[in-house]
C-alpha cells in the first residue's frame, strides 16, 4: 500500500480510506507479522528526539493520521489524507470484527479490570493478556518477557497499549518471520473501549476539540505535553512549508 502514502514531518502517511485499510488488515493478519502506528503531533515531536522511535516508525507497515489537528496541516503541505483514522476508533472496529469472527488477540498493557470488562463486552475474542510493570522499557528482562509473550501466543491481532514510544519500540522488535498477524500501537484505546476513560462527545471530536476534553480530564498528565506539542508543531510546519516552497521554486537559468 505504499502508493497510498505521502511524506511530511519525516513520516510516510497512509492517505487512503478506513474501508480500504480494514480490507488490508483482513488480509494482513494472515501474512507474516507487520505492525501499524498512529502518528499525532506528540509523536512527531518525539520523533525529533528519539532515534529508537524513528527506527520503529521506519519499520512500520502503515502510519495512520490519528489527529484531526494534524490533518489540515498535512493538507496544506500537499499530503491529502482522505480521512483521519483515530487509533481509538480503529481499535473499536477491530474489536467488533474479532468478536464477530472469533479471532485471537494478544494485549500488551491495560489493567486486569479492563481485561475482565473487555472479555464481557466481546465474548467471541480469545484474549491473551500481559501487563508489564511501570518502567519496564528500561529493564531488558522485562522487555524480553513482553516480547516472548507475543511470540508464544499466536493471534490474528496484537494490541500494544503501553504508550509511546514504548509500544512502538516493542512492536518493531518482533521480526516478520517470528509469527503471523498484525500489531497495532493503540495507546489508551482499551481504556476508552471499556469505559475506564471517557472519550470526548462526538460533537467535540467533529470540532477538533477532543484534545481539550482529554486535557481537562487529565490535566496533570496532558497540560505540559500539549504545551510542548504546540511549541513544536508551529515552527515544524513552517519549516516543512518553506522546504517545499524551495523545492518547487524554478531554478534561474544563466543568461
TrEMBL record:
The keyword rRNA-binding is annotated on this UniProt entry: no
A GO MF label: hexosyltransferase activity
InterPro entries in UniProt: WecG_TagA_CpsF
Keyword list, A-Z: Glycosyltransferase, Transferase
Keyword Mitochondrion annotated: no
Any single Pfam family the record assigns to this protein: Glyco_tran_WecG
Protein origin, superkingdom: Bacteria
Protein name: Glycosyltransferase
